[in-house]
Amino acid sequence: MTYLLSEIAARFGGELIGEDIRVERVATLEAAGPSDIVFVGDPKYAKQLATTAAGAVIVNAALAAATSLPRIVVPNPYLCFARTANLLHPPARPAPGIHPSAVIAEDVVLGEGCHVGAFVSIGAGSRIGANTVLEAGCRIGTGVAIGADGYCHPNVVVCADTQIGARVILHPGAVIGSDGFGNAWQGDGWFKIPQLGRVVIGDDVEVGASTTIDRGALGDTTIEDGVRLDNQIQIGHNVHIGKHTALAGCVGVAGSTRIGAYCTFGGSAMILGHLDIADRVNIMAGTLVGKSIKKAGTYVGQYPVQTHEDWLANASHLRRLDALAGRLKELERKVGHAVTDDKE
Amino acid sequence: MTYLLSEIAARFGGELIGEDIRVERVATLEAAGPSDIVFVGDPKYAKQLATTAAGAVIVNAALAAATSLPRIVVPNPYLCFARTANLLHPPARPAPGIHPSAVIAEDVVLGEGCHVGAFVSIGAGSRIGANTVLEAGCRIGTGVAIGADGYCHPNVVVCADTQIGARVILHPGAVIGSDGFGNAWQGDGWFKIPQLGRVVIGDDVEVGASTTIDRGALGDTTIEDGVRLDNQIQIGHNVHIGKHTALAGCVGVAGSTRIGAYCTFGGSAMILGHLDIADRVNIMAGTLVGKSIKKAGTYVGQYPVQTHEDWLANASHLRRLDALAGRLKELERKVGHAVTDDKE
Amino acid sequence: MTYLLSEIAARFGGELIGEDIRVERVATLEAAGPSDIVFVGDPKYAKQLATTAAGAVIVNAALAAATSLPRIVVPNPYLCFARTANLLHPPARPAPGIHPSAVIAEDVVLGEGCHVGAFVSIGAGSRIGANTVLEAGCRIGTGVAIGADGYCHPNVVVCADTQIGARVILHPGAVIGSDGFGNAWQGDGWFKIPQLGRVVIGDDVEVGASTTIDRGALGDTTIEDGVRLDNQIQIGHNVHIGKHTALAGCVGVAGSTRIGAYCTFGGSAMILGHLDIADRVNIMAGTLVGKSIKKAGTYVGQYPVQTHEDWLANASHLRRLDALAGRLKELERKVGHAVTDDKE
User: Fold this and answer.
1) Which one of A37, A116, A197, C331 is CB 3.0 to 4.6 Å from A56, fit for a cystine?
2) CB–CB of C181 and A79 under 8 A?
């Protein structure tokens, strides 16, 4: 399956400059050959345009003159490249059909064109939308609804009563709807709080490998349309994540926190419970968020990395920064300098 | 199944004030209807008592006069609510029986009333206690013992020789008894240290989804009665966790560390190896514990989150805090101020 | 199966001092009995040599005179002990054979001596090397190659096209080859970038329980020979990890980062994307690496843990460290002290 550059340009709104060749694959600048198309979005890769063996390139207007290769000029080369990749390499889907080993409760409703793989189990009262794929070893509990065109990769677990929209992708080992972490102290140990809510996931959501999303304690954990969760993420009970928010790998969100729409969270960020995070907040990697954030913007709490020697010299002062600040204040008093108010 | 408020009050040691109505469900203040019972433990939610449509409420003595709803007055409303939730919504358990697809070694001993789901495998020499549930896709290795009234959710893996007490709950994808991380350097690469110990878990323990607990290298990894582990936790080999200690999501505990009883660890805390943590220690979220803690109390090591601009301005000084402290000392000398000893 | 101390000494290059007894097991100093062999590598455990009931001990030359027990003297007691453990307790491997429940595509090539457990599925075009074990519930996708003498523990998922060398161990729940986290913003939501690369793993690699390794977006994610990955690790798309590098539990490595050979990463370290980490770099636990590291050495970024009171007093100054540094500079100016340049 090949496409003319003019077909790609027309489909994705770009301008073709140069010869209208056919391309077959997307590739990196280094690995590309004459039937491959590449992209350059960042000027720092522009010099590689001189050496790539690619047949064509997707660039923005600023880089259009930086190469003599056939090129498609678009405002957002990365997005155009992604769409071209999807066009040239449409994702494979297993053929419709139900593997004879699958164990499906009698009243389960399976839409047309579903693929149910080997050793899948589906509990009573569940409904699977048309063309949805359940790969081998998936566990779908009772009363689950999964929309059309979904994709559950192998060994995914979807617990009872979870509601999932259309076109949702769950990567291998993801667990949706496990019990939240609810414990009341009863004097001599913990009493388990029953977790009675559900997980409700919108359309076009993607959930990474080994990511876990807990059901609500009372009420639901809700993941809105278009949310992207990377691998190894933990979402606590009754969390709400607004539409099109993206969380990178290893993020943790504790219970009852509400995260707005269009947010991004870097890897290993940790968000404490019962907080409110506004729309369009960007949390950088490794940041612990311990209070609500009311205003859009970028927030950080990263401890800088150093050589071990430098860290030893510097970090020891952190344990008595208050004393150091006190000494500074005392010195200011002594020198007759106007003492700055150091309380916020 | 409904209960009179007087039945609930009698069962859980509360005082009923107001009409003795029947309740059917627990609910949140916002979602409750007339046959629902809610709770208010924190005075900050007291004003919602005026607007809730709940039929009844569980409160403490301080809030007993804050509402005219039928109410149960108890010292710990959260605990009473949890127990009421458990009474009104007893957790569903799958019916006893062995799914024909299960693969069970000949000498396995299954207690009465067990449920063994589809595609479960159980290795030779294992014993499963009465009424224990093994949901679909669970992998029980050889020589495993699981006590009575346990619950293994789907796709749990319990490796060879693991010993588990009564009433233990393992959430989906949990892995118990995988090899610890033991490697000896042999000049040109790593030599794998055989992991010969076991995991031994007491009674009434709960282990979260995708949490992993490694077997001992020599000797055992031990989790005492009543411990609560949330999702995505990693417990290294030969770790010991004392009774009723609770770890929130994404915590890591490195090998051979001993954690006392009645401790709590916030999300994403990381505890290094070969440490001793006393009883009744509370570690706050995101804290890295790099040395033993001998004394009960609350410990923190969180880097505060800021806007990106403020962080850039402030964090750069961390890289040369030692120089800053040196300048302060020099200035103190110059001004004739008694120089504070800044070595601990 | 027992061995004479002289046999062990000869095999692993040690010198035997004392009686040539037979030993049957390895053990800890505390738990050992007369047919057990123990080791002491660290002088701080030397005093336990006086009280252990072990039959023999492995020590280095410095400790050879510290005990009268029969002893094997070697340069690296830990390594010799590991090898002895492996000799006395050879890891059990399930017998060759294919469980009748396994679902194996017709064209799959299985080497001699393979074990394929219950409910395993293997996709079309895959090749499994001789003597490799696939335990119950493993999911091997299409076009996968796994080398000889490998070991996939239960419920491992290996996605399509993954290439794995010889003697590779994948612990339970590991996921190899899931889609990377690639999303392009398209104005009103995220467009999923097709993940077209593979995961390529060398020989003698070990991957921990619930660890996830994403396939490349374009080009491959590559894990070189001898790499050791602990549990709960996330490796992003197009990451490269050089030979014999070891990552402890809960580490995250974001996309396109290249890590050199012979590195070590402590638990919960987080490495951002598109970085270059040189050979022989040691990153301590909990450290966030946000820039490339060009030079071998040890690097840290740990915020020190304190009591809650001390932390409250000290951490508040971090939010205005820039103001504090400014006040110091002003004071230096006033006192007539040569102002130090505080810009790096």
Assistant:
1) A37
2) no
